[in-house]
Write a structure and sequence with these properties.
The protein has 138 residues and is mostly helical. The protein has a domain of 89 residues. Helix content is 45%, strand content 0%. Helix 1 packs antiparallel against helix 2 and helix 2 packs antiparallel against helix 3. The longest helix is centred in the middle third of the chain and has 19 residues. The N and C termini lie far apart (55 Å).
Length: 138
């Protein structure tokens, strides 16, 4: 698994690696479908976690359709009396394509970071102090 970018001693392009060009397209409006109420509880939980996870920022309608199909398959597998290790491995491998786990995201160089807390700028703080000193602030 590749290191996080902040763990690198220097940028990859300085290490002699080629920087690959990226072909870009427009993101489309996304409508996340509702999960199936009849799914196995684990499939439901995974579906709900996908909707609230950071990698969902990158999902398009086709990704949600693929995730829906995988949750359907996972539910079938979990409810099945006869389970196949190969089927479970295939389902888990498909979830890697949706970047569900951190290791999967790192392999494609996507890192989710903590939100930066909003802080007032020095100018805003100075103005607030002036107002307070002048008795203009209640």
């Amino acid at each position: 698994m590749p290191n996080r970018s902040e763990d690198l001693a220097r940028p990859r392009e300085r290490k002699g690696s080629d920087v690959q060009a990226v072909t870009k397209g427009l993101m489309r409006e996304v409508k996340v479908p509702n999960g199936d109420r009849n799914w196995h509880p684990i499939a439901k939980r995974l579906w709900d976690s996908l909707k609230s996870s950071g990698q969902a920022d990158f999902y398009q309608n086709s990704d949600w359709a693929f995730a829906y199909s995988l949750c359907e398959d996972l539910s079938y597998y979990k409810k099945s009396g006869k389970r196949s290790g190969q089927m479970l491995q295939t389902i888990y491998s498909a979830f890697e394509r949706l970047l569900v786990a951190e290791g999967d995201r790192r392999r494609v160089r996507i890192e989710l970071t903590e939100p930066v807390p909003e802080q007032d700028t020095a100018a805003v703080l100075a103005i607030a102090d002036y107002k307070k000193d002048l008795g203009l602030e209640a």
